[in-house]
Write a structure and sequence with these properties.
Blueprint (H helix, E strand, L loop, with lengths): L11 H11 L12 H11 L4 E2 L8 E5 L6 H5 L5 E2 L2 E6 L12 E4 L5 H8 L5 E4 L4 H4 L3 E6 L2 E6 L1 H6 L3 E2 L1 H6 L2 E2 L1
Parallel strand pairs: 2-4, 2-5, 5-6, 6-7, 8-10
Antiparallel strand pairs: 1-9, 3-4, 7-8
Helix pairs in contact: 1-2
């Protein structure tokens, strides 16, 4: 199993299944995933454990705001099947345009308050990868723990946006706010 998916908790099987479902797991003797391939795979799999309000836009639009370190790793998800639809990738120009996304990756903690204010309570699953983002209002914060990627969940932020996060995903979180 690639070292980026070695979980910090004994729930390794669910994370392995998440990775397999994304089609990103390679045989143990082949090259390991890069950090950004692993993060893109998580972005692809998180929606499997999230329910959006019935009034949400159809489809599955995965987005990243600039700066976007995921680049080609995120682009590789274009057209993949997910939740009875296919994935589309976008890089919205601003937070207001990002309201059309189902999942939004945010790498810039400096502008986080402006981004979250621009999203308001839109049903957008926000994912960030800088320390402290979950405490500031991002719904899922990806964290590095040595060679592993774990995550924290801000359940209050998800609920304000009308999203329901599965208990299976909540069990895997390092911390739930």
């Amino acid at each position: 199993m690639p070292h980026w998916f070695a979980p910090a908790r004994p729930h390794w099987l669910l994370l392995a299944l998440l990775a397999l479902a994304a089609g990103h797991v390679v045989p143990a003797r082949a090259q390991a995933l890069t950090e950004y391939q692993a993060k893109a795979a998580l972005l692809y799999n998180f929606p499997k454990f999230v329910e959006w309000p019935a009034s949400s836009r159809p489809g599955m639009l995965l987005c990243a705001l600039a700066p976007d370190p995921l680049g080609p790793a995120l682009d590789s998800l274009q057209g993949k099947p997910l939740k009875n639809t296919v994935v589309s990738i976008a890089r919205p120009a601003n937070p207001t345009a990002a309201q059309a996304c189902q999942v939004l990756f945010i790498a810039d903690a400096d502008n986080l308050d402006r981004v979250l204010a621009g999203l308001g309570n839109a049903p957008v699953l926000t994912v960030g990868d800088e320390e402290g983002m979950a405490a500031r209002g991002v719904m899922i914060e990806l964290i590095r723990e040595g060679p592993r990627i774990a995550f924290k969940i801000n359940l209050s932020a998800a609920r304000r946006a009308g999203l329901t996060i599965s208990s299976q995903l909540l069990k895997l979180a390092r911390e739930v706010y």
